[in-house]
Amino acid sequence: MLLVSKAGIVDAERIKVKIFPGLERTPMLKVNGIVVHQTNSSTSGSTFAHYQSAGAHGAHFLIDKDGTIYQTASVYKRTNHVGWLKSRCLETRKCAPAEFRDAQKIKGIKKLSAHEYKKEPLVRYPGNNDSIGIEIVGREIGKVEGYETVNEAQNGSLRWLVRELVETLGVSMREVHRHPEISYKKPSEARSAKWQD
């Protein structure tokens, strides 16, 4: 279990604290999920440079190529890391028939996302307001090749971090998702990320 300060900063030997206040938005009252991303950059430095720009989007943690884990935002603050939500009902087909039909009638990803964000947590996918984001350094190699393979050092750190966050924040392992599963991202993003043995 992680030791977390009142400000949402994690105190752990494996985590280097490098907070970017510009990533932090409003308070996050409850964490219902974890979303795993890839940076589409080849170094942590280029990601950190982006995090310093005005209005930057980013996640709460970043895992470098050597497995180093950085905390980049408070776990008690919302960050913009998810984007437009997919419909959990449409994606999983595990919902009432009437709900499925209603979701099918909504045209456009912005409207569908707004519809999803109005739903209770766990009925919808976790979004910006209730999820922790973990970025893994790795760029998109090409349209066909997709994103770089997440290496073993990164996956080892990801497994440890997810396990600790799940225990500390009371998140279900079923609510840990790759970014493209829940939002409109390239399917190869974080495809090779492994957080379970």
UniProtKB/TrEMBL annotation:
Q: Which EC number(s) are documented for this chain? A: 3.5.1.28
* Leading EC class: hydrolase
**Residue ranges of every copy of the N-acetylmuramoyl-L-alanine amidase domain listed in the record:** 30-182
Give the catalysed reaction(s), semicolon-separated.
Hydrolyzes the link between N-acetylmuramoyl residues and L-amino acid residues in certain cell-wall glycopeptides
State the source organism's domain of life: Bacteria
Q: Does the keyword Metal-binding apply?
A: no
UniProt-listed Pfam families = Amidase_2 (PF01510)
Family matches, as InterPro entries:
Amidase/PGRP_sf (IPR036505), Amidase_domain (IPR002502), NAMLAA_amidase_2 (IPR051206)
Name the UniProt key words of this record, in alphabetical order: Cell wall biogenesis/degradation, Hydrolase
Identify the PANTHER family for this entry.
N-ACETYLMURAMOYL-L-ALANINE AMIDASE AMID (PTHR30417)
The identity of this protein, by name, is N-acetylmuramoyl-L-alanine amidase
Give the originating organism.
Cupriavidus campinensis
Source taxonomy: Bacteria, Pseudomonadati, Pseudomonadota, Betaproteobacteria, Burkholderiales
